[in-house]
Amino acid sequence: MAYDGLSSTTTRLARACGRQQLTNPITSSGNSLFVRFQSGPSRQSRGFQAHFRQVCGGYILTNSFGTISSPLFPANYPDNQNCSWIIQAQPPFNHITLSFTHFGLESSTTCTQDFLEILDGNYGDAPLRGRYCGTSMPHPITSFSNALTLKFISDSSLNADGFHATYAASSSACGGDFHMAEGTFDSPGYPEVYPSNVECVWNIVSSPGNRLQLSFM
């Protein structure tokens, strides 16, 4: 039997016995599976062989803050990846701020080999906030909706060490909570003109025992 999580008290995904064939892969909703094998006191058989592998993306992140990274980070990401994540704000929050702490993908002038796309929403044709590749760190992005969708694509040629980012839910379309040692943020719409009648608040928290230094570029 296979369960979606780390115990048999979670959702059961599959149960098999005899010569039953499980033709479709079993995919968890998160980063863990619980598999249980039990044999009876009488007849035995040849058993089974199973293979597991990490499948990137494909699930919804609903915590008020957390981290997200490319497959195998900080090691190089594999070839031929097609990953997607949805970061969903839960009430009372209705916006998401995404801030990168590391970014390194294959470089190309059109970002068509390895790239990361960020969409403002949780549906396929949501507005595109940006497509990124190379080693230039993207500026923090705050959603105008209550969700952000990340799509990561890699081809079969060069690869790199990928990306790592933090996210935080907020009740404002600007500002947010940063739980990190280093990062950058901007006024709304930067480098374009910021809108009128906007108030933004950023809470920046590093590890205990340290101070924070703020510099304006």
Automatic annotation (TrEMBL):
Q: Which Gene3D superfamilies match?
A: Spermadhesin, CUB domain
Q: Which residues form the CUB domain?
A: 1-55, 56-170, 174-217
The disulfide bonds in this chain are C56-C83
Among Pfam families, the record links this protein to: CUB
Domain of life (superkingdom) = Eukaryota
| Coiled coil, from the record | none
Give the residue spans that cross the bilayer.
Answer: none
Q: Which UniProt keywords apply?
A: Disulfide bond, Repeat
Name of protein: Cubilin
Q: Could you tell me which species this protein originates from?
A: Pipistrellus kuhlii (Kuhl's pipistrelle)
